[in-house]
C-alpha cells in the first residue's frame, strides 16, 4: 500500500466507543483488558470527553482511531489534523467529498507532524443505500461506482486509505492502491440496526479489509470481553493465522 503504514497479518479490530460519556467508555476499556488494543472515538464521545480522553487512551498504549470525518475548507482541516496528530491518534477520517485539495492538506499536516497518523477518506457512509444516494441528486452512477470514483480522488490527493463497506473493497482496489477500513461489521445473527451495507467479520477479511470497526455487537453484548474474543478469533481464522 502507499506510504509507510504497513498492515499486520491479522486486520486490527477497532472497538467503537460510541458512548455519551467518558465514564462508560472507560468502564468498557477496563472490561476488555489487554485484548482491547484498538479503539474508535467518534463525534459523540469526542464532543463529550474531548482531547484529554484521546490522549488518555493513546498514553495507555491503545491505538486510537479518531473518527471525526472532517469536511471543511483546507486551512481549517489542516489545523484540525495537526491537533489530532498531537493527541496521539493513529487514524483520522476526512470526507472524500471535501475534494482533493482538502484531503491533500490533511495528508500534509500529518506528514508535518511526523507521519505517524494515517488519513482515511470516507467514501459513502455505510448507512446509505442506492436509494439514499439517488435522493441526494447525484448522477446516474451506482453507489459502488461513486465509491470507486471517490477512492481514486483520495489516492490522487495522497490519502493513506478509505472508509467503505466490505462490498466496495474490490471497487476501491480496482481504482486505487489504498488501505480499506470497514465499519458496519455484524457477526452472523446480529441485527443490522441503522447500517445498510453490513458484513460479518470473516466475510470482510476475506474481501480484503485492512481494518475492521465493531461497535454495538461488542459494546451492547451481555459479555463484551467474550464478544470481542469471538470476533478476534473469527478474524484470525479468516486471515489464515489460526486453523479454520
What features would you highlight for this structure?
single chain; 244 residues; TIM Barrel; 8-stranded parallel barrel; 10 helices; globular; alpha/beta
Give a written overview of the molecule:
This protein is an alpha/beta fold and 244 residues long. It has one domain: Aldolase class I (TIM Barrel), CATH 3.20.20.70. The protein contains ten helices and eight strands. The protein has an eight-stranded parallel beta barrel, surrounded by six helices. The relative contact order is 0.15.
Residues in helices, as a percent range: 40-55%
- The number of domains: 1
Structural category: alpha/beta
Mean pLDDT value? 88
CATH level-four homologous superfamily name: Aldolase class I
Q: Quote the distance from N terminus to C terminus.
A: 27 Å
* Unreliable segments of 5+ consecutive residues: none
* Largest sheet data: 8 strands, parallel, barrel
